[in-house]
Amino acid sequence: MYQKICMETCEIARAAGRFIRQEAARFSGDKVEVKGLHNFVSYVDKASETQIVAALRQLLPEAGFITEEGTDRHRGDRFNWVIDPLDGTTNFIHGLAPYSVSIALMEADAVVVGVVYDPTLDECFYTWCDAPGAYLNGRPVQVSACRRVDDALIATGFPYTDFLGMYQYIPCLQYFMEHSHGVRRLGSAAIDLAYTACGRFDAFYEYGLHPWDVAAGVLLVEKAGGTVSDFSGGSNFIFGGEMAASNRNMSEEFSSIMRKYFVKKSSDK
Questions:
Q1: Does the structure show a pLDDT above 60 at 36?
Q2: 69 pLDDT exceeds 90?
Q3: If DSSP states are collapsed to H, E and C, what string results for the chain?
Q4: Can you tell me the mean pLDDT for 68-75?
Q5: Residue at which a domain ends, from 120, 141, 162
Q6: Residues 78-89: tens digit of each pLDDT
Q7: Which residues form the domain of 81?
Q8: Are residues 177 and 227 in the same domain?
Q9: Looking at the 3D structure of the chain, how many domains does it have?
């Protein structure tokens, strides 16, 4: 069941990606709307989401939706689609890659299908809950074998609005700059997680996230052999707004760094 749903979801994501790629060729900055501080949306985001929601309604009529642009706010009793129709809108409006379509299916609290499609490279990352692994354009992928943060390439994302967290974020960023192969910020959390799943990145962390940014990518990382947690090492990473993902070899070290910089002790003022 889930494999069939996943394969059809890949086609829906690819169709949305074709639309995005088509519109990218003629997009102009005067078509951008401001949703909030440094938070942008365009007709491309909205039209992509409308297209995706309509197709997914046909695929699984009983499912509800958690969508970035609010096309459908109906929640299902058992299943819910979690959709970012254009993750990396700021990149898109500036004509900069990457950006992506992210679609996940949740059954109760568990992600059972995850698809991330990058229309700029025609790369479709996907998996489902009982799959033997994760895939990129039909080929199996797995997380890296890196064993130490010192040898890792780290991905992160910068906050758009919650700048109070920068007092913790900046020292952590400095640590990784000094104790890794480097830090990269691509501008799409869904792509960051997909790249962690296929070993291009060794680890990823960010705060200020939304479920539509990460739900699909979480399953990709886990099925590719990696681990995902919140900054305290817990499981509140889809709706909790913060996430740390890595391969299993360096997960303990990476998680300890997250706790050091982001988790307040009871003695902290």
A1: no
A2: no
A3: CHHHHHHHHHHHHHHHHHHHHHHHCCCCHHHEEEEECCEEEEHHHHHHHHHHHHHHHHHCCCCEEEECCCCCCCCCCCEEEEEEEEECHHHHHCCCCCCEEEEEEEECCEEEEEEEEECCCCEEEEEECCCCCEEECCEEECCCCCCCHHHCEEEECCCCCCHHHHHHHHHHHHHHHHCCCEEECCCCHHHHHHHHHCCCCCEEEEECCCHHHHHHHHHHHHHCCEEEECCCCCCCCCCCCEEEEEECCCHHHHHHHHHHHHCCCCCCC
A4: 78
A5: 141
A6: 999 999 999 999
A7: 2-141
A8: yes
A9: 2
Please give the Cα distance from 219 to 192 (Å, whole number): 13
Residue 73's pLDDT band (cuts 50, 70, 90): confident
Q: What is the CATH number of the domain that holds 187?
A: 3.40.190.80
What pLDDT, on the 0 to 100 scale, is given for residue 269?
41
**Dmax over Cα atoms in the chain, in whole Å?**
55
Confidence of residue 31 (pLDDT cuts 50, 70, 90): low
pTM for the complete prediction?
Answer: 0.92
- Any residues with CB less than 8 A from the CB of 8 and at least 6 apart, and which? 59
In whole angstroms, what is the distance from residue 200 CA to residue 50 CA?
32
- Please compute, for residue 138, the number of CA atoms within 13 A of its CA located in the half-sphere on the CB side: 2
Which residue type is seen at 130?
D
